[in-house]
Amino acid sequence: MKIYIKGHTFGYELQRVAQMFFPGEKVEVSQGEPDEETLAGDYLVTCAENSRLTVSGSIGESRSCRCEEPILQTDAPSDLEHKLGVMIYRVASQATGIYPQWGVLTGIRPVKLFLSRMEQGMDEAELRTHFLNGCLVNERKFDLALKTARIEREILAKSTSDSFSLYISIPFCPTRCAYCSFVSHSIEQAAKLIPAYVGKLCEELADTARIAAQLKLKLRTVYFGGGTPTTLSAQQLERIMGTIAAQFDFSGIWEYTVEAGRPDTITADKLREIKEAGAGRISINPQTLSDSVLEVIGRKHTTRQLMDVFAMARDYGFDNINMDLIAGLPTDTPEGFKASIDGVIAMAPENITVHTLTVKRASRITFEQACAELQTVGGMVDYAQEAVTAAGYAPYYLYRQNGSLSSLENVGYAKPGTEGLYNIYIMDETHSILGVGAGASTKLRHPVTGAFERIYNYKYPYEYMQHFEAAKERKQRILEFYR
Prior knowledge:
Oligomer: single chain
Largest sheet: 9 strands, mixed
């Protein structure tokens, strides 16, 4: 698929809109007119000339398509870009039969757009007009985003100008799941790195604590992610969590989360250590309650193990547990996914997070196949929303991932008062997140100017340890940014 642009510079955004309709195929952007070779395939010509916007070309079996709009004197460049995106959506959806439910919203944080409009004073009727009519978002997604935005807004208001969150990266897993795109290493390959990694991590934590203290920042949330943090031994967890407790001021903390994640890594001594160190929120993630699907995706645990570990966590006093499920896993079916949703609801965790699998394909699939998969995964996500909300959970954070075939969302649902605060703060970029460890990203948000800056750690554990002094030096940029 090729997009040609004439009289404007909006190629990037138009490419993102068009990509939703051409799964597995690269959408290319070029200046000018199509050549003879292009005319034999799928293409669109987008033009902003002579006081008119036009989108024309050839797509699929329906081939010829065309859409026109006048350019108004009041149209800013952003208005023209938006109009062209809507025009591409209209001609491409008509030609392919694919109707992305988020309309022309291509970003990963649609709720942030809702919050922005709400801050501008839009009421619900005005929001509906803007997002349903102007952005082609469907009714179900609009309602989901609006509910999420209302809950987020209350939690975002808690953050103060001196707030920050701490993220600790543990990029190790017992095995690598088939769908995983995170920076993580299986324990078989990386076990020998872990002791040295833990030592460097503790050193970076101490340095980061000193910087936060110099700036008089208040720690609000702590989040252990990965990877699977409980891949570490109880003694290694004790060392890291002990360093955090010793170096950081916990007097203003609101939440402390550890991604326990894989049931096959969770033991009684690890749960005990996590609880004694002050973490009150953990994740125990099944992804599915189908043992056959678990085997296909490379997770070395069973549903029975998951349930036993969940019960053990309750016995140790954990009263804020999150569980993740993924819609669209290989070999899963709508019936199987429904059983997973119903089974997790019956276990009554405080949070349930429903992800849509990001499908990465090496070759193009047909429009018919894409429509069928969109309908299947979309049905799974819709069922999850209905069942989970009916069980008393409400959506509190939402994001999308680039590359998802269906352009659908990942949603965190929570029982009232148990929302995962860190998830909201990092998604909204409300306050600074100081990241520690390999692959961690420090995201700085200035409390006065609103300026935003990222500081990246080295991606892989061996790089992180090899270039540790350089990574520490980068962190000094935090002081410069605030001052």
